[in-house]
Amino acid sequence: xxxxxxxxxxxxxxxxxxxxxSKKFKAEQAKNAELTAQYAQSQSSLKTCEDDKAEAARKxxxxxxxxxxxxxxISFLKENNTQALKQLENLSVIxxxxxxxIKKSLENIGAKDLYIQDLQSAMAKKDSLNRESSSTMTxxxxxxxxxxxxxxxxxxxxxxxxxxxxPARNRSHKSRPSPSPGRTG
Length: 185
Known about the structure:
The protein has 185 residues and is an all-alpha fold. It has helices at residues 2-17, 22-92, 96-158.
């Protein structure tokens, strides 16, 4: 703006103090007006360019900030990916020989399970037979004891030895011998 004022002031002073034709003076005034208009247009363009530059700088800063955030996210994801791959390698990598060994171990465990089931079945059968034979022996021993008791009672009653295989009868005898301590009934 100062330049425009200076030009106007300079042109006014020249026109006042110099002897110039009015034609030249009007041409110079038109030129001055044109230069002033060009100057105003240049100033307006400069302001628009400075505004655009500021806007571009703001967008650039925002984009750089976004790029930094995305780069951090990428590095974080790469680190997580690397850790996940290491964990998978540690947990799930089984060689062919290890897989075969696991398969054989599972087969051995299955065979041992069958063997244990066979043993349990055999033990249950043995226990059943033992209970049955114990029950049979108890019944037979009880019958034999009763028969021997009948024989003893018969011998006491007659003073002569007398054997009877019949079941013991209920006799009214004052003194009955008690069973010996070695016998249990």
